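Reviewers of the previous submission asked for a worked example of the structure-prediction workflow described in the proposal, so we include one complete record here. The input consisted solely of the amino acid sequence. No template or homolog information was supplied to the procedure at any stage.
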Amino acid sequence: MPKSSNHLALARQWEMLKSIPSRAPGITASDLVDRLAEAGFPVSKRTVERDLVDLSLQFGIGCNEAPKPYGWYWLPGKAHDFSSVELTDAISLNLAEHTLRRMLPAQFLRGLEPRFALAKKKLSALEAHPMVRLRDKLRYVPTSLEQRPPSIQSKLFEAIQQALVEERQIDVRYAPFQGKAKDLRLHPLSLVLRGQVPYLLATTFDYEQVLLYAVHRFESVTVTTQAIRVPDGYSVDAELAAGRMQFGGGKRVQLKARLSDELATHVAECPLSEDQQVSYKKAHWELSATVRDSWELHFWILSQGAGIEVLRPVALRRMVMDRLAEALGNYNKQNSK
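From that input alone, the workflow returned the following structure tokens.
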């Protein structure tokens, strides 16, 4: 038998031993077939029955022979602790490890390290299994221009995570974009990863307003002994639903625009809102959608170039016209040199 087949048989039998209950009436061969299939080991009932007989010669498992169907269980005092990870869990852990390492506090990761190691070891031993090869077939690609993550001091990030876990206030020195560094007392509430950039949602000093702070702009972070104060009704999900991470005031507007054929196809497949409508009128595709008036919306519209003409709101149309005119002016300056 090839080495890879031996590994698969051993992994299958390991899953079986983990599924056997510690007392009678036990588990039937048919039930084990179903559990093995869920774990990624589709085999016949006859194969399971042969495995059970072989395993009973090496481990303290017995068979309840009456009445049928026969049930298998651990004999008294013979049950084992099979600390392992299932194949499907190993694949999920392996795929999620990168993101988890970026988000979870160090003390949480320490608890997961043995699981990460077990997952890698199991996948390495079972590399011939078709489910293991799934990890080489799944990838995430951002829809925007790919950028490298900002540089973040690991000690500062760990201090923020610690404060979130312990719900403690932090003294920080924060350097906003194009601004002077400030000394602040923050009440950290939530950590949100937006693309490659982590942001801290927090209140400042004794104010109730929740603000956003880019983690890479912290120059120093000190965890205090004082507990945070959470604003009444605060919820990170409510903040996200209100468009907090779109960098806007949260105001909803009715966007109306003319679209190119390509952009009309794209937004028809990936709508901007639940109430979006795309229709063909007067030789043009027209879009109508309720969206949040935010920096993210402005950025998206400007990134479409000639593929979109904003009709409403009028203020948004004027803003886009001014930004495009400014951009055209920059190109004209270069051409005149």
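The chain is about 40% helix and 25% strand. We consider this example representative of the routine output the project will generate in years two and three.
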